[in-house]
Design a protein that fits this description.
This protein is an alpha/beta fold and about 350 residues long. About 20% of the residues lie in helices and about 30% in strands. The protein is globular, with a radius of gyration of 21 Å.
């Protein structure tokens, strides 16, 4: 049985001003941290243990929020990183945890429901040094890594070639990796898989697993975080949501309240304890975090309101992320305390 490695030690500079108070893996998508969705996805395949690489000074925070086991009972090991070493550097430095077997590597800031069971079977059949899950992408709106198919389900790897890319097959950020890859990783310092290690491999060492059309959303910027939430509440990403109030597109968490006289048009999701006061207007698609308040006289449209945020009486919010990162983390800790 293989192990999984989740890369969650990034600095989240693109997520400012929510960061550094809000680490990117804790950014909420329909009121659950994106890392939570990643761990849930890993729970559907037979991995013996999940290692999550996080900054060393944040190990306690992550353990308090997520614990040491997934919902399905898979053990989680929180691997502290004192200084950033990059995705390839992490593989190199965590050989003691990973051992000498195949490892499934995924980022903590991307929602992409790759069929991991099929991918693992494909990798076992062809056994390349690395197998990369790819999906056809629209190069006019997507700027990621690209793979050019070669015979025998192999490929040449290109790091972010832009619109002049020689292929439409984009990496989903999901890799199955053999220990032999460490022979290509520099022995010290910061080393990135996508920009340094994989482009230098021979096509015969790079396996290609074509997922077909698959949803992919990186939530590493404010705009992409907003987009991911709007897509989720519209069920574009097919993430599981609470059932709607019958006859509506309104989904309510435990204790969420819509007061008489409020206007709410779905699709919307209100987190636990959220309140839309009389005279407030909430127009979907929109997501409102736990314990957030939309005050009387406010209007929110196509937006993400974070946990504990207060939209004031005269505020007009459209296409925005409202709230602060520290409040999101505080909410996660509070709810983790309730579960324990």
């Amino acid at each position: 049985m293989i192990r999984a490695l989740v890369l969650a030690a990034g600095s989240a500079t693109r997520l400012r001003p929510l960061s550094p108070d809000l680490p990117k893996p804790l950014a909420p998508v329909v009121n659950r941290p994106v890392l939570d969705w990643v761990l849930t996805h890993l729970d559907i395949v037979a991995v013996s243990e999940i290692g999550v690489i996080v900054p060393a000074d944040a190990v306690d925070l992550y353990e308090r929020i997520f614990g040491r086991f997934t919902d399905a009972g898979t053990p989680i090991t929180w691997l502290g990183e004192d200084v950033p070493v990059g995705s390839a550097g992490a593989l190199r430095d965590q050989r003691g945890f990973l051992g000498n077997s195949t490892v499934l590597v995924v980022p903590a800031d991307i929602i992409c429901p790759v069929d991991l069971t099929r991918m693992m079977a494909h990798h076992a059949a062809y056994r390349r040094v690395v197998t990369v899950a790819v999906s056809p992408r629209d190069l006019r709106v997507w700027d990621g890594d690209v793979l050019v198919p070669c015979p025998g389900f192999t490929a040449r790897y290109f790091f972010k070639p832009g619109r002049q890319a020689p292929s439409r097959l984009g990496s989903t950020g999901t890799w199955l990796i053999e220990p032999a890859l460490c022979d290509w990783i520099l022995s010290t310092g910061y080393v990135d898989l996508s920009s340094q290690t994989l482009p230098g491999l021979s096509p015969s060492d790079v396996g290609l697993f074509d997922t077909g059309e698959v949803y992919l959303r990186d939530v590493g910027t404010l705009q992409m975080l907003l987009q991911g939430n709007l897509e989720a509440v519209q069920q574009t990403s097919r993430l599981p949501l609470p059932p709607p109030v019958p006859g509506t597109q309104i989904r309510l968490g435990l204790g969420a309240v819509i007061e008489d006289g409020a206007v709410v048009e779905g699709p919307v999701l209100l987190g636990e304890g959220a309140r839309v006061q009389a005279g407030a207007c909430l127009l979907g698609p929109a997501v409102v975090g736990p314990d957030a308040i939309l005050s009387a006289g406010s209007q929110v449209e196509r937006s993400l309101v974070l946990a504990n945020a207060v939209v004031r009486p005269r505020d007009r919010v459209k296409g925005q992320v409202v709230g602060d990162g520290a409040s999101v983390v505080r909410s996660l800790l509070d709810h983790a305390g309730e579960r324990s």
